[in-house]
Here is the input.
Amino acid sequence: MDTDQRTVQANGITLAYRVWGPQDAPPVLLLHARGADGADWSQIAPALAAGPRRIYAPDLRGHGRSDWPGGYSYETMRDDVHAFLGALGIARADVVGHSLGGAVAYLLAQHSPQLVQRLVLEDVPAPFPLDPPRPPAERPDGELPYDWAMIVATDRQRNAPKPVWWDHMGRITMPTLLIGGGPSSLIPQEQIAALADTLPDARRLTIDAGHLVHEVRPEEFLAAVEEFLSSADRTPS
Here is the structure.
């Protein structure tokens, strides 16, 4: 397996990423949650790569070894991912996103549906305003593996998402799997249900693991994703 850590120039910044699997296998893009990086998928990626698939797990801007340039709008992260795929010559990929990475993934699917073959959203809420709003976070002491400005910016957007994010959900017409973490998750599960209801080709599954589904119950997460990707492979076009 190729598990080198690499970098690429995309959207004017340097993005670090990890890869697994044969170079000529179908591509799968894994987008991590806020505060994590591409290494968060290390327990999942080798099994997905055995498909065989070529797995790409970038560090989003402001995270890990990627640049921390400021400008942390969800749309900017979306454009980073779009440019990342272009820089690597990937015309179309399956996309799996967790939490913040899932929001970036659905914005990519709305904006450039030709790039996303199938979409998996792990414990990703609908973009509804928070009521009450999330209070200002306090910065932890010491060095952080992410840019604190990213936390401030994404909190602000989570409190008041742009209405167009919800308005454009109907553009996500590719097969989509939504995996919820159940009642112990910090994400309101009714929002995942609302998101599934508005997508044209969605299926929903609950794995009672809390917000970190792929970390807490990796075997069940993998089984669900593998079944979804494989069944979509067999679906006539």
Remarks:
- The chain has a mean pLDDT of 95.
